[in-house]
Amino acid sequence: MPQQPAPSDEIIPAAPASVIHELKYIDLLLLKTLAETESLTKTSARIGISVAKASRMLSSLRKLFNNELVQRCGPRMIATPELERLLPDIRASIKSLGKLFEHPLAFHPADIESRLVFACTDNAYLALLAPALKRLAEEAPRLQISVSELDDQTLSKLSSGDIDFILGQDFLARKNDRFRHQRLLTCPHCVVVRRDHPMALAHPDGRITAGDLRGFRQVLPIIHRPSGFESPTRLSMNLATAEAIRLPYFIAGFFTILQNDCFLAAPLAVAQRLSNWLPIELLHFDEGSQFLWTPEILWHERTDASPLHQWVRSIVCSAAAAANTP
Fold it and tell me: Does the global pTM surpass 0.85?
């Protein structure tokens, strides 16, 4: 019987770190997304991690591959030739790994460490987003929320991923087939005056007509739409009123009418929330064809299947409906 060779006492050199490093699925996802967005901020938001964590991961991957992987060019982070060479294999690996799971992984809000950006006006924030913040903070304590103003770049930012959601009313936004939308409210407008206003004292039942508005001037907020155009807030198409002042903000109008006999036309949902804190009266105007406030939540189709975005959308929709139910 042949004699077995004696075990060798030779010490096998340790494998280099680049060999024993456990390359994770999220590492591949970060490289793929970073090459596509050319932005670490957009990448971190899209894959659901903080910018700081994404930066640490990129630093580790640079050491692993012994390559910069991306190079800064102004505000952009451009893939190096080495990363460009790796991208086909990275994409193929992500696709193959995705097939291993018949069902999506469980989503745990408490584990989320990310930032989401909403774009809306101040009245939409008050009536639609603010009611959801308590639950979002309780269930996802490391989720950060940012709010930006609406301007003529809002829809472009939604397309690029700089904005995650838009809260507002804009039929022009629906023309983009890649945007999704869901209505949050259908709400009439009311007339808002200070509590001791002559109209409030003359109509204790809270109902007024067009004739009652004569002799009083209107504070007119100019509402910005997601598509960039602006429009004043009026009660009815057929009602002409004298203007006192135009404002770029909505909630400032509520404070303006506390100082004079002017009135404000406002969505009932917004006025009801502010009536909890301000000495105002809400008067109902029943004449003519009233304008309705029908705000929606808009998002890009890219985030349709994102568990984080689905969860946040559901909370905003349910919280807005619950907070504004009579």
Answer: no
